[in-house]
Design brief:
The complex is a heterodimer of chains A (293) and B (190). Chain A is α/β, with parallel strands linked by helices and 293 residues long. Chain A is 45% helix and 10% strand. Chain A folds into two domains: 118 residues, Glutathione S-transferase Yfyf (Class Pi), Chain A, domain 2; 142 residues, Rossmann fold (3-Layer(aba) Sandwich). The relative contact order of chain A is 0.15. Chain A is globular. Chain A has 13 helices and eight strands. Chain B has 190 residues and is mostly helical. Chain B folds into two domains: 96 residues, Fumarate Reductase Iron-sulfur Protein, Chain B, domain 2; 73 residues, no CATH class. Helix content of chain B is 55%, strand content 0%. The radius of gyration of chain B is 20 Å and the shape is elongated. The chains are: A alpha/beta (293), B mainly alpha (190). The interface between A and B is large, with 55 and 59 residues.
C-alpha cells in the first residue's frame, strides 16, 4: 500500500516521536509513505482565529501539492491537521466560487480530489497484518483518549462516533491491551491554550489524568500531538493543580502498536517523553512487554 | 409590531453580518443550553455560548457590543462539542471565529485576549516566513509580544535534550509562495 504523508509541524518537533513511531509501524506493515513535496503548515488553530481565508488557503496549498504529486490520499497523523484539511476541503467544495479564488491565492491549480485520512483509518486497513505481527501483547489497562478533533464535528470528519468512539478501543484489543471504560474519551484537553492559558490545560487535562488513574489505567493512549503534549509536557502543571504526583505515561497509539509488534522502543521515540514510559512490574509481565525510559 | 425607526434590519445587526459571513442563522437557536452544558470552559466564561447567542438574537447594538467585548469568546477552545450536540446544528465555533475577528476589527477585544492574540500572531509570523512552524521562533516572538519573558524557560533545555526542539527553522522551498498567500489574505505581515 502506498499513501501520501503529511506529517505537519508538530511531528517535526515537539511530537517527533509520533512521526517516528508512525513511520516505524507503517513501514513494518508494508505501507509506503510518500511525503507531500514542500508541504507547508496547515495553519492549525492560529489561522482560523486570525483570518478565515488564510485558514482555507494553507490547507488548500497542501492538497494542491499532493494533487500535483499524483497522490490520491494523504495520511495526516495530527488530528488538528487532518481536521483543518477536511474542513477546508469541504468548505471549498460547498462554495464553488471559492475554488477559483483559492487557486489564485495559492498560485496552484486546486481540484479538491485528494482524500484525507487519519492514522486510525489507515491502521484499520491493515488489522490483519497487525494481528499477525503482534509478538509481545501490550497486556496493560489503557485509557483511550480520542480528544476533540478526531471525531468532531461529525459532519466534517465523518469518523467513528463523536460520543463514545470505539476505533482506538478496537485497535487496543487487537494488540492485547485492556481498555478501561471511562467517560473522558472525548473531553477537551485544553488544546491550544498550552502556552497562553496553561491553567486551563492543567484543569482540563488534570481531569483526564485523574480520571484514567482512578479507573486503574496504566497508560493513556492518544492519537493527537496536542493532547499528548498537554498530558505529557504539561504534567508538572497538572500535578501541581491536582496536588498529586501522577506518573501515568501518555503514549501515542503507534507507539503501543509498535511495542506489541516487538519494535525497538527507541525507534518509537519512547525516550522522548517527559513522563517516562515505565510500568510497575508487579504483574510479572516479561520485561520486553514494558518499555525502558 | 415595533416601529421601523428604532428597529434595525437584520442585515445591519451583528447577527445579520454573522449570517452573511458564515451562513449561520442564529434564529435557529432555541436556547436549549446544550452548548453551555457541554462546553469545557463555560464555567469560566462571562457569557456562555448560549447567552451570547441569545443576546445577538435581539439585534440591539448595546447587546451586540457586549458580546464583542466579552472574554468568553476568547476562551472558546474550538473543541466543537457545542456544534456536535446542538439539536439545531448551529455552527457555534464558526460564529466564535467571526466574533473574535470582528472584536479585533472594531477594537473591542477584551483585555484578556491580548496574550491569546499574541500567540496566534507569533505562530502565523513564523509560518509566513519559513513555511513551517519554527517552535523556537514562535516562543521568542510570543515572549516579545506578551512580555512573559520567564514563562516556560526551563522547558526549552528539557525539550532540546529530548531531541524535540530544532534549533534551526525548517525552510520550505517556495517561501515566496507562502508570503504571497499571506499578502493576499491577511494583507500584511503579522
Amino acid at each position: 500500500m502506498r499513501i501520501g504523508y503529511y506529517p505537519g509541524c508538530s511531528l517535526l518537533g515537539s511530537s517527533r516521536e509520533f512521526d517516528e513511531s508512525t513511520r516505524a509501524v507503517l513501514t513494518a506493515l508494508d505501507v509506503e509513505l510518500v511525503e507531500v513535496p514542500d508541504w507547508n503548515c496547515c495553519g492549525a488553530s492560529s489561522a482560523h482565529v486570525i483570518d478565515h481565508t488564510l485558514s482555507l488557503a494553507l490547507p488548500a496549498r497542501i492538497m494542491a501539492l499532493a494533487e500535483q504529486a499524483g497522490l490520491t490520499e494523504i495520511l495526516a497523523p495530527c488530528a488538528a491537521c487532518s481536521n483543518r484539511l477536511l474542513s477546508a476541503q469541504q468548505e471549498i467544495e460547498q462554495h464553488p466560487e471559492l475554488k477559483a479564488e483559492i487557486a489564485r491565492i495559492i498560485e496552484l491549480p486546486y481540484q479538491g480530489t485528494v482524500k484525507i485520512v487519519n492514522i486510525l483509518e489507515v491502521l484499520d486497513r491493515v488489522t490483519e497484518r497487525i494481528a499477525v505481527k503482534v509478538t509481545k501483547p501490550f497486556a496493560k489497562k489503557v485509557a483511550n483518549y480520542y480528544g476533540c478533533l478526531l471525531v468532531r464535528p461529525p459532519r466534517v470528519v465523518n469518523f467513528d462516533r463523536p460520543e463514545d468512539p470505539q476505533s482506538m478501543d478496537q485497535m487496543m484489543k487487537l494488540v492485547g491491551a485492556e481498555s478501561i471504560d471511562w467517560p473522558f474519551k472525548t473531553e477537551c484537553c485544553g488544546a491550544a491554550f498550552s502556552v497562553t492559558r496553561t491553567d486551563i490545560v492543567a484543569k482540563l487535562s488534570g481531569k483526564l489524568v485523574e480520571g484514567a488513574v482512578k479507573r486503574g489505567a496504566e497508560a493513556i493512549v492518544v492519537a493527537c500531538p496536542m493532547c499528548h503534549s498537554n498530558l505529557d509536557l504539561r504534567r508538572p502543571e497538572i500535578n501541581e493543580h491536582l496536588q498529586e504526583e501522577y506518573t501515568i505515561p501518555a503514549m501515542f497509539i503507534t507507539q503501543v502498536i509498535g511495542l506489541a509488534m516487538g519494535l525497538d522502543p527507541e525507534k518509537l521515540g519512547l525516550q522522548r517523553h517527559m513522563v517516562s514510559v515505565e510500568f510497575p512490574v508487579e504483574r510479572n509481565i516479561p520485561a520486553a512487554a514494558g518499555a525502558q525510559a | 409590531m415595533s416601529s421601523g425607526t428604532h428597529h434595525a434590519t437584520h442585515a445591519d445587526t451583528l447577527a445579520g453580518r454573522i449570517e452573511e459571513a458564515t451562513g449561520v442563522k442564529l434564529a435557529h437557536c432555541y436556547q436549549c443550553g446544550k452548548c453551555a452544558a457541554g462546553c469545557p470552559v463555560s464555567d469560566q466564561m462571562d457569557l456562555t455560548p448560549c447567552q451570547a447567542l441569545r443576546m445577538l438574537q435581539y439585534g440591539f447594538p448595546e447587546l451586540d457590543r457586549r458580546v464583542l467585548q466579552s472574554e468568553g469568546i476568547w476562551l472558546c477552545l474550538t473543541c466543537e462539542t457545542c456544534s456536535t450536540r446542538c439539536p439545531q446544528e448551529v455552527e457555534i465555533p464558526k460564529v466564535m471565529d467571526f466574533l473574535r475577528s470582528e472584536a479585533v476589527r472594531l477594537d473591542l477585544a477584551h483585555p484578556k485576549s491580548k496574550d491569546i492574540l499574541a500567540f496566534h500572531r507569533a505562530f502565523l509570523d513564523s509560518i509566513e516566513h519559513t513555511g513551517r512552524l519554527y517552535e523556537v521562533g514562535l516562543v521568542a516572538d510570543y515572549k516579545m509580544r506578551s512580555r512573559h519573558f520567564l514563562k516556560d524557560v526551563m522547558l526549552a533545555p528539557k525539550m532540546y535534550f529530548k531531541g524535540k526542539l530544532g534549533l534551526f527553522p525548517h525552510l520550505i522551498k517556495n517561501r515566496q509562495g507562502m508570503k504571497a498567500i499571506f499578502k493576499r489574505t491577511t494583507g500584511k505581515a503579522t
